[in-house]
Amino acid sequence: MKKKLIGRIMGGALAVMLAFPVTGLWGLPMTRVSAAGEAADSGTSQPEITVTKVQAEDAELSLEIGSDMSSQFVEEAEPSSDEGGHIKTSKIGATVTLTFEGTGIRFYTKCGNGAGKLSVQIDDGEPQEIDEYIDSSTAQFKELLYENLELGETNESHTIVLTTLEGERSNFNFDYFEVIQTESAPVDEPEKEEKSTIVQAEDGDYVSLDPQIGSSMADSFVVESEPSSNGGAHIKTSKIGATVTLTFEGTGVRFYTKLGNGAGKLSVQVDGGEPEEIDEYIDSSTAQFQQQLFEALNLSADNEQHTLILTTVEGERSNFNFDYFEVISLEEVVEDDYIQSEGNTTYYLDSSAAPDGDGRSEDTAFDSLEDINGIEFAAGDEILIKAGSEFQGQLYPKGSGSEEAPIVIDMYGEGEKPLIDGNGRYSDAPTFRDNGPFGEEGSAVYLCNQEYWEINNLRVKNWSDDGQDKERSGIRVEAYGGGTYHHIYIKNCDISDIRGYNGQDSIWDVVPENGGTTFYGSRTTHRTGGINVVSYTERDLTNATSSSTAGAVIDEEPTVFDDILIEGNKIENCHANGITTTNIRGELDNKDYRHTNVVIRGNEIRNVQRAGIVPLYTSGALVERNLVDTFQQTYAGYGCGIWCDRADGMVFQYNEVCNGKNTMDGMAFNLDDMTENGIIQYNYTHNNVG
Fold it and tell me: Cross-referenced Gene3D superfamilies, in alphabetical order (predicted)?
């Protein structure tokens, strides 16, 4: 007799005690039905049910299959039976036993006026009687005679035993079983995106050095300050056999370093594999910095621990440089789920308020930044923070206002301005491979792709005592993806103690085709400090191998800000800059990539490591009545009191700029690369070294 199994059981094996082998159980098409017995929608999140058909002759039979019904099972060819036949017997006490994994079972058979009764027993439970008899001379085929769909919620092993019983009639038929199995709804794998993390070669949290850092290249690693290296420094050695070992969790890694005509070769080994040789030598008297020298991607399908070992190799040259690693990992994409404000509503925030307030009054104020961060605000909304409140973390409200009704953040009550303390939060350092914004991680107050906002009367800090200058900001406003974002006003805020990035790195350089001066189009430092307004131009980075090989712009239109007012703020003790605007990877000489209607007025900026005010990528910026006192204190990079590049039509007037501390550049004002039609007038400068 031809045998056929329809479908297969998901999530567990079908254990059938067979009188002879069954083939083809796995890999056959699966018939899925819903709990109601209808085909299930493949997109449903409900548990799926699978049905597997098992012919009775494929179960364990207590008698052999033969030709004598009185002592054997007999195969009866019958077109109306399932698969064109069934088995039958007249022997009392014969059994058909099926062991299966599932949550339910059905038994189908032929019923007729000569058929007898069966006992059915599940898992050694109480037997019950079922009857194949019908009072009709016309037999009925494939009749459901027994069903039990309550064997449990999960697929477990069960046994059904059918036994022929003595009675008036002694013909017994067995056609097929249906095994019911519940398949849990597939768990959607979280969407993941690739993330890059910069690890400096001297970072002791991830990197081990042998020998350690010291003062002699002959027998140790030495830290070399170099503005063009990532982070403003790299390590080097001349000791043969020295190793730099990076242990990381991720899927891939890249190594970047300084290349030069005195540099030697390194051996690189990943996860104990075959070592390969890489060479830091270039035939040029001009060193090249932050150059990718090695790449190993797709080391694992998901984040796993890997180890990379760099070893200095004996050869013609014995200077070896190590700048940084770029660790590639996968990060889950988190779906945003914000409460939608109806607009024209005032929300209150008070760090001393009772928990679980609705934020709609002073008496029921919100008590955490998370309450505010979880709302998408609308035109006309106000966020009022009680005087004297102190919060650690980040203020990142969502949504946008309108031209007629901007969203306003301000204080209420009497006393000190409310404090938002980022507590040293920072973004990962960008590389030439990164498109898009710095991200929310690195600032105490943050907006992204939002417009018509006014931020007033806050105290803001973002300091860390870890001794490392990182990608930190006090207030950072970012935009990307194309379009113009309007009306960003930041007024009367007190911003202090921002440990940002002082280095002179570059993640996008423009090298003239016919030679000449390289233009440095994007630096990390221009995005860190007190107040940073930053737009991003997306480029094709598919074939980028260095900061000078970014591809064409892929945005449909430039991303810029219009109507920026930064007024009356006090900014003190910031690494690196006080106030900046910029456009990362924007076209250098295309005015469409410049911010418009930028006014920076009446701010006091004291004790910054690099520049005071830097309105990069602007057209018609007005910078007036500001004080910049004590700037350009670091040797990790260059800065002036007030300067700009990629700008036109700027006016710097009625400013006081004093106490520039070194000659990198250290002067009061500078109209730098690609500036035109600028006016510097009516300013007071003194005590500047540059």
Answer: Galactose-binding domain-like, Single-stranded right-handed beta-helix, Pectin lyase-like
Residue type, 611: A
547 contacts: CB under 8 Å, gap ≥ 6: 290, 432, 506, 507, 508, 509
Banded model confidence at residue 526, pLDDT cuts 50, 70, 90: confident
Q: Closest Cα partner for 610 from 640, 587, 589?
A: 640
Task: Report strand pairing: 375-377 vs 577-584.
Answer: unpaired
For residue 465, the tally of other CB atoms under 10 A from its CB is 7
d(C-alpha 144, C-alpha 317), whole Å: 86
Q: pLDDT for 27-63, tens place per residue?
A: 322 333 333 333 334 444 567 889 999 999 999 999 9
The C-alpha angle with vertex 149 and arms to 144 and 154, in degrees rounded to 5, equals 145
The pair phi, psi for residue 600, each rounded to 5°, is: -120, 105
Q: 252-259 and 243-250 as β-strands: parallel, antiparallel, unpaired?
A: unpaired
d(CA 359, CA 353): 10
Mean local confidence (pLDDT), 105-116: 96
Answer yes or no: is pLDDT of 91 > 60: yes
Q: Is the per-residue pLDDT at 542 higher than 80?
A: no
Instruction: Give tens-digit pLDDT for 375-416.
Output: 999 999 999 999 999 999 999 999 999 999 999 999 999 999
Q: Is CATH 2.60.120.260 the right assignment for the domain spanning 192-332?
A: yes
Residue 672 amino acid letter: D
Residue 660, C-beta contacts closer than 8 angstroms, at least 6 positions apart: 631, 632, 640, 641, 666, 667, 668, 687, 688, 689, 690
In the numeric block, which tokens belong to residue 520? 């440095």
CB-CB neighbours of 129 under 10 Å? 10
Same fold, 32-183 and 192-332: yes
Sheet-wide strand order for 85-89: 65-66, 73-77, 85-89, 172-174
Query: Could you report the per-residue pLDDT of 293-344, keeping only the tens digit for each?
Result: 999 999 999 999 999 999 999 999 999 999 999 999 998 887 778 999 999 9
122 confidence band (pLDDT: 50, 70, 90): very high
pLDDT for residue 642 is more than 70: yes
Cα separation, 345 vs 348, in Å, equals: 10
pLDDT of residue 43: 42
- CA dist 198 and 326 (Å) reads 5
Residue 408 sits at the vertex; the CA angle it makes with 402 and 409, to the nearest 5 degrees, is: 150
> What confidence tier does 193 reach under pLDDT thresholds 50, 70, 90?
confident
Side-chain-facing half-sphere of 143: CA atoms under 13 Å: 15
* In contact, 445 and 383? CB cutoff 8 Å: no
Q: Which amino acid is at 475?
A: I
**Which tokens in the block code for residue 111?**
């019923």
Judge residue 617's burial from the number of C-beta atoms within 10 Å of its C-beta, 0-12 exposed, 13-18 middle, 19 or more buried. buried
Residue by residue, DSSP assigns 570-629 as: EEEEEESEEEEEEEET--TT-GGGSEEEEEEES-EEEEESS-SEEE-SEES-EEES-EEE
The domain locations on the chain are 32-183, 192-332, 422-686
Give the residue-averaged pLDDT of 87-107. 96
**Mean pLDDT along residues 563-589:** 92
Strand order in the sheet with 304-313: 207-210, 243-250, 304-313, 265-270, 276-279
32-183: what fold? Jelly Rolls (2.60.120)
Distance in Å from the first CA to the final CA of the chain: 99
Q: Is residue 440 pLDDT above 90, yes or no?
A: no
Which amino acid type is present at position 168?
E
